[in-house]
Amino acid sequence: MKTTWKSRLSSSLFALPYTLCFAAFMLFPIGYGIYISLHDFELLSQEHPFVGLSHYIAIFTSGSYENSLFFRGLWVTIQFVLFSVPLLILVGLGIALLVNALPRKIRGLFRTFYFMPYAISASVMAVIWLMMFDTNAGLLNSMLQKLGIQSIPWLTDTPWVWISLIATTLWWTIGFNMIIFINALNEVPEDYYEAASIDGANVWSKFKHITLPSIRPVMLFVMITSTIASFNIYAQPFLLTRGGPGDTTRVLLMNVLDHAFIRKDVGSASAMAIIMAFIIMIISIVQYRLTYGRKEGN
């Protein structure tokens, strides 16, 4: 009994640093954000009176400024999620399969090559792609002009602005998904493929019946993390398009931050952020149930 008590104490002490960090950097900010959303929290005011759910009610009241701001930004964000997430999964898996098929001597080089963009900052990413997409002096339009093709307004007109943002996002973040998929592919036992080859299975059959089922939990993880990251998009449209043309690429986070720090209505902006977090949580649960939870239930 004494040994059990000591074991539990030592286990708790090992978990204590993580618990403290989780409370300090997750639980406290979430709780404080909810507190702010329930108060009239203007930055220039010393008093923050309690207003209850009035900020949430305003967001869901048709015709209000908050309603228009929130749902307009949410719709733009959802469009980006729908465009980007399937590509982040499929392209990431495709690159992982290609890299994994390379000889071992050069495999590490290509892993590093594809992962490098993920390590750079948002500002560096923006500078690189502004030089690529600039309508007048960008590298892409210069190459098109040499081929006798008219310049394309990559960042100033639709649908090119969406193509630009998604291409930038893929280049910047695909390395993370690739590494996750490569690790998952390396965990699939070679015996499975050898047995399938003996039975006469082709490459597609092996991929469909061995690879995909084996990496299904990792694919779920990549799908959820890619969805969360895409919902939190901010750097790409802010640095490349400033939300233009018009409000075409003005995502929800841009509206929330402007509402908080330009209009200085932090309480209402916090309510928008809380609702956004709730939407992401619901979507993540639905993704889990549709792709993995149903199998467990069977």
UniProtKB/TrEMBL annotation:
InterPro entries, alphabetized: ABC_transporter_permease, MetI-like, MetI-like_sf
SUPFAM superfamilies assigned: MetI-like
Span of domain ABC transmembrane type-1: 74-287
Record has Transmembrane as a keyword: yes
Domain of life the protein comes from: Bacteria
Keyword Cell membrane appears in the UniProt entry: yes
Gene Ontology CC terms, in alphabetical order: plasma membrane
Membrane-related topology note: Multi-pass membrane protein
Subcellular location: Cell membrane
Main location: membrane
Family note: Belongs to the binding-protein-dependent transport system permease family.
Protein name, entry field: Sugar ABC transporter permease
Biological source species: Paenibacillus montaniterrae
